[in-house]
Each structure stands twice: as structure tokens, then as C-alpha cells.
Specification:
about 90 residues; 4-stranded antiparallel sheet
């Protein structure tokens, strides 16, 4: 399914991909200005074996397939708000 494939993309570079837990998935339809986007939260174990806490992510479905997990930067926040926050 699409969700399984998206989960594989999201967890690809995690320390413990099998520990990943997802919540709050939602789909934002494409508009004239923005591609369709899947948004949600993911939590996974770090190298010490502890969960890091749920972090927002987004992945666009256009040819560029832009993807990011919240790293605390303004850049991520701006893009998450652009793609995922429904107004």
C-alpha cells in the first residue's frame, strides 16, 4: 500500500527503523500551487535504545518528492505549515 511505501521512505535512515511508530496521518489534496502531501508524526528509538518522542513529518507526492522530519529548524516549520497545516 502507499502508506507502507511512505513508511519505508520515512524510516530509511533511522537508527532503528523497525521501532518506528506513526500517528496522526493525514492527506492534503493538491492545489494549483502545492502538490498532494502526506503528513503525520513518527517516533523511533535512537542509538541508546530510547524513544525520541513524536516528530512531525511530511512527504510530497509530486516528481520532486520532498520529504523532511522535524529537526527543530525554522525551515522545517515553514515547509510543514505550507504543506500540512490546513487553513
Amino acid at each position: 500500500t502507499k502508506v507502507y511505501i511512505l513508511e519505508q521512505v520515512i524510516t530509511k535512515n533511522m537508527k532503528d527503523p523497525e521501532s518506528a511508530k506513526f500517528q496522526n496521518w493525514h492527506y492534503v489534496k493538491a492545489s494549483k500551487k502545492l502538490p498532494a502531501t502526506f503528513c503525520g508524526q513518527v517516533n523511533a528509538k535512537n542509538s541508546f535504545g530510547g524513544y525520541t518522542g513524536f516528530k512531525h513529518f511530511f512527504i510530497t507526492t509530486d516528481d520532486k518528492m520532498e520529504f523532511a522530519i522535524d529537526d527543530g529548524s525554522d525551515g522545517f516549520a515553514n515547509k510543514f505549515n505550507k504543506y500540512c497545516v490546513m487553513k
